[in-house]
Task: inverse folding
């Protein structure tokens, strides 16, 4: 029996080897290797989803083997309803971003090596059940991401890459301290996430440790006031990297909160939930308002991410199963929709070499496919009922309403601003008279369509029948919600 | 028989003399690095045989225990890597090659004796020997202004600090009537000494050792020395004397795992904190890579001292793991300076295009020094912080990890210049096959010790 989870994690490492052994002048060959490996990863993760038993709340496909015995660190992997959707998301966006990476022209070999290493880190983070293993995978993401932004990014890439690196590292060293403290507080000492979930720490410690972990996750989510790295990183990163950044990396933060903060420190979560709700609403409203003011297309989408991730935190703060389900679903949906949005930005940028929203106009007549996709994804992103973005946000709001009715009202105002900036963007890009500069832009190519259409289909299906995703996560999420 | 204990040192010293003798003959001089390597490898082979010899040797002057074994091994390992680095360095001119390797081998012998000393007399003699050889090696490029200046500075400061140390030793002898470390520890822990005077004496000795470990505020000449010295010597100085200093700190302050003076934890953590902070902050502003690495090694010394502030077996074990990994990280980084022939940060511009392998080695070493998983440097930091947290010194741990974020900034600067800069600096690479080979070995060690540190981890266990 082949260990399925390890194969998913380490398949990209095979890719690293294959690419490293290919001479760099065969860049076509390297790109196809990239597609092959990420495609295989996607197939494996689909197989994982098919084999997954929705009725069990325990970990599945568990792999365990002692690793550093002296330090009590083990190689422990598993999947449950919380991580399944995110693993699928990672594999899907990994493949789609790889399609978008076919446009990469320079240093193709290095690009794919870093890309694969990034995949390893992302998969590993979602599967690790040992705190140290989790931490190692979590940090593994940083180095490739730094290079992907720093080498293939836009004009201010150095600044953006360093800022991303330092912000995330500053958060994660606090996590390292918390991990060690948790280890020595727990009796018997262990790094095992499942065992630690049932320890029940001293309430005084819970507060400190919750914050220690939470800051690391909040930087990744990103939660106000730790969000300032995100717009810079997004604007400078190349399109495929933006897709992964928004689609997967931000989810690592939310995932960490669900996997570690909530089960480990229940009392602290109770006490801090109102504060979380306030920050979440700040995220939603502030992110939306700042997005409204942007003239850079990509920056606008980046701030819309900030706004949307606020709903995830709001769902967490609800501390009930409705809110939790909404938060996890929102993570999945946001990955799909915003991943798609960044692809759309990339399509336009490839043609115009600018992202300034005032440089476009009237594209709907010359680029009908593009107009359709962009409108569809924008509507999904602004939370139109019937499309997937709505469901997660709605559940989050409903979950939180019981505890914080006034905050939810404020968050709803944020939603309205969200509608406004998306429509304003659509107006500036698609409507009006055709901007003379844009006459020569061709419509989306087949490759562009192949990468975007699957995302649109998923958005549509999940929006129409959210149960298709919810069934996978419900049992696990309700289990976490029962703790409160 | 106690002589058996000294076989590795004796063999090494014989080889050193042979190298010196051979340097009189051109044909032998050319291969003096080969003899030097042979000497070290021979000593490494003989070393395991000494474990069976008596625990104390030479009238209780030397001690044969796991710590001494570990440090002797570590120093030999560092030394062989340094010899490879040196033989790749073209600046170590052919005519003086013989003497150079003689000094490297003698330094190794002195360091090995120092880490096994059990008496303050032995400590003083070996530390002085290490100092004198270091002055010569730092000032090795006689015609180079910087090198001579660095040698002189190191000499002046070194003489002062060993002088203070000697004064401390004499005070201790007056107070305890013995130079035997065990006896001193027993007297002090039993409360049979006049504590204020004893503390003063111990602090004097600490000054001498702190100079060797380059702890703040005795760090000032280290950057000058590292910058002026031949790069391979800088690498050795950042490892060898430091390892010796820490070995002696363990021997002096933590005999029987009880602190020699009650204030040890406060003293050590205070020194560790200022060392880390000052090392890291000054490193931020450096434009010379060797100087930056010097400040980085000061910061690392602070990290290591932090492990010793934990008065527990775990702290000592963590220090040993840290030092072991530190050898590979630092040799990798300094080796790249030799390989690329570049000392200024800006000279590294575009190295990833010009020589991807050199850039990769440098990047791995630097990221490992920064302590990022999955590289070995992370494991090193991890075990030390684990020890500190176990001792419940949460503030200390917090300061340490905050420092590692600051440190990342200056390590990233070099990486940024190598990979992200658009300019190119065309300077020839120093392509010595030995050098490249040894650097690849350090890279592999940096990765392997990060992923599978079992090999050295058997010396450390978390409870």
Result:
């Amino acid at each position: 029996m082949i260990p399925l989870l390890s194969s998913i994690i380490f398949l990209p490492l095979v890719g690293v080897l294959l690419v490293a052994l290919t001479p760099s002048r065969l860049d076509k060959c390297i790109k196809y290797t990239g597609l092959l490996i990420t495609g295989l990863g996607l197939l494996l993760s689909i197989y994982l989803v098919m084999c997954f038993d929705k009725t069990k709340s325990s970990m599945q496909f568990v792999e365990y083997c002692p690793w550093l015995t002296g330090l009590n660190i083990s190689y422990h992997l598993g999947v449950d309803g919380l991580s399944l959707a995110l693993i699928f998301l990672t594999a899907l966006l990994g493949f789609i971003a790889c399609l978008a990476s076919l446009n990469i022209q320079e240093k193709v070999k290095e690009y794919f090596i870093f890309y694969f290493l990034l995949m390893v880190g992302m998969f590993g983070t979602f599967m690790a059940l040992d705190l140290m293993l989790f931490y190692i995978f979590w940090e593994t993401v940083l180095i490739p991401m730094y290079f992907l932004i720093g080498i293939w990014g836009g004009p201010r890439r150095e600044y953006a890459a360093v800022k991303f690196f330092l912000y995330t590292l500053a958060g994660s060293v606090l996590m390292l301290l918390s991990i060690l403290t948790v280890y020595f507080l727990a009796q018997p000492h262990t790094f095992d996430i499942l065992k630690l979930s049932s320890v029940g720490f001293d309430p005084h410690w819970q507060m400190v440790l919750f914050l220690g972990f939470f800051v690391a996750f909040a930087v990744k989510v990103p939660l106000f006031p730790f969000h300032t790295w995100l717009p810079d990183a997004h604007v400078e990163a190349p399109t495929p990297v933006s897709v992964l950044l928004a689609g997967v990396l931000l989810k690592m933060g939310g995932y960490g909160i669900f996997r570690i903060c909530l089960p480990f420190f229940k009392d602290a979560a109770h006490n801090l939930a109102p504060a979380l709700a306030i920050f979440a609403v700040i995220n939603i409203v502030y992110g939306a308002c700042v997005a409204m003011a942007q003239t850079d297309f990509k920056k606008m989408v980046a701030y819309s991410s900030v706004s949307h991730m606020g709903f995830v935190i709001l769902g967490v703060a609800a501390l009930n199963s409705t809110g939790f389900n909404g938060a996890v679903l929102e993570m999945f949906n946001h990955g799909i929709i915003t991943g798609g949005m960044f692809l759309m930005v990339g399509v336009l940028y490839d043609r115009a070499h600018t992202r300034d929203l005032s440089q476009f106009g009237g594209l709907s007549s010359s680029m009908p496919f593009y107009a359709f996709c962009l409108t569809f994804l924008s509507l999904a992103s602004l939370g139109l009922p019937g499309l997937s973005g709505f469901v997660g946000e709605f559940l989050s709001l409903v979950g939180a309403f019981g505890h914080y009715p006034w905050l939810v009202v404020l968050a709803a105002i944020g939603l309205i601003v969200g509608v406004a900036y998306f429509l304003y963007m659509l107006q500036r890009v698609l409507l009006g008279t055709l901007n003379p500069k844009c006459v020569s832009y061709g419509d989306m190519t087949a490759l562009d369509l192949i990468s975007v259409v699957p995302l649109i289909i998923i958005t549509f299906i999940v929006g129409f029948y959210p149960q298709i995703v919810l069934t996978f996560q419900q049992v696990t999420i309700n289990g976490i919600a029962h703790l409160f | 028989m106690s002589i058996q204990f000294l076989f590795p040192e004796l063999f090494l010293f014989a080889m050193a003399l042979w190298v010196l003798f051979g340097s009189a003959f051109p044909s032998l001089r050319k291969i003096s690095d080969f003899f030097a390597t042979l000497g070290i490898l021979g000593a490494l082979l003989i070393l395991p045989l000494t474990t069976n010899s008596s625990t104390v040797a030479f009238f209780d002057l030397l001690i044969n225990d796991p710590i001494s074994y570990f440090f002797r091994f570590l120093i030999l390992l560092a030394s062989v890597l340094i010899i490879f680095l040196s033989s790749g360095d073209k600046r170590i001119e052919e005519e003086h090659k013989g003497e150079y390797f003689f000094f490297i081998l003698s330094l190794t012998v002195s360091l090995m004796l120092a880490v096994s000393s059990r008496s303050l007399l032995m400590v003083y003699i070996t530390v002085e020997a290490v100092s004198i050889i270091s002055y010569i090696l730092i000032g090795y490029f006689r015609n180079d202004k910087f090198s001579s200046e660095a040698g002189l500075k190191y000499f002046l400061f070194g003489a002062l600090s060993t002088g203070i140390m000697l004064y401390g030793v004499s005070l201790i002898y007056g107070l305890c009537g013995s130079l035997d470390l065990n006896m001193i520890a027993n007297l002090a822990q039993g409360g049979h000494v006049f504590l204020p005077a004893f503390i003063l004496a111990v602090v004097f000795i600490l000054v001498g050792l702190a100079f060797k470990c380059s702890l703040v505020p005795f760090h000032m000449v280290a950057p000058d020395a590292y910058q002026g010295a031949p790069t391979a010597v800088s690498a050795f100085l950042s490892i060898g004397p430091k390892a010796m200093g820490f070995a002696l700190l363990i021997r002096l302050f933590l005999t029987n795992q009880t602190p020699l003076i009650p204030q040890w934890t406060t003293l050590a953590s205070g020194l560790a904190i200022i060392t880390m902070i000052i090392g890291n902050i000054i490193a931020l502003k450096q434009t010379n890579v060797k100087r930056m690495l010097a400040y980085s090694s000061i910061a690392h010394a602070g990290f290591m001292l932090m492990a010793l502030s934990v008065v527990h077996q775990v702290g000592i074990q963590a220090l040993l793991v840290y030092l072991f990994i530190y050898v590979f990280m630092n040799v990798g980084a300094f080796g790249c300076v030799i390989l690329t022939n570049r000392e200024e940060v800006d000279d590294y511009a575009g190295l990833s295009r010009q020589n991807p392998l050199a850039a990769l080695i440098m990047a791995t070493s630097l990221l490992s020094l920064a302590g990022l998983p999955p590289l070995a440097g992370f494991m090193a930091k991890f075990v030390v912080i684990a020890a500190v947290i176990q001792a419940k010194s949460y503030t200390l741990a917090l300061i340490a990890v905050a420092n590692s974020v600051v440190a990342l900034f200056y390590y990233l600067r070099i990486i940024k210049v190598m990979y992200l800069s658009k300019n190119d600096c065309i300077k020839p690479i120093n392509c010595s096959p030995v050098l490249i080979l040894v650097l690849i070995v350090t890279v592999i060690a940096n990765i392997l010790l990060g992923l599978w540190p079992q090999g050295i981890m058997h010396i450390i266990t978390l409870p």
Notes: DSSP finds 20 helices and two strands in chain B. The mean pLDDT of chain B is 88. Residues 282-463 of chain B form one domain. Chain B touches chain A at residues 367, 372-374, 378, 382-383, 385-386, 389-390, 394, 397-398, 401-402, 404-405, 408-409, 412, 416, 419-420, 453-454, 457-458, 460-463 (CB under 8 Å).
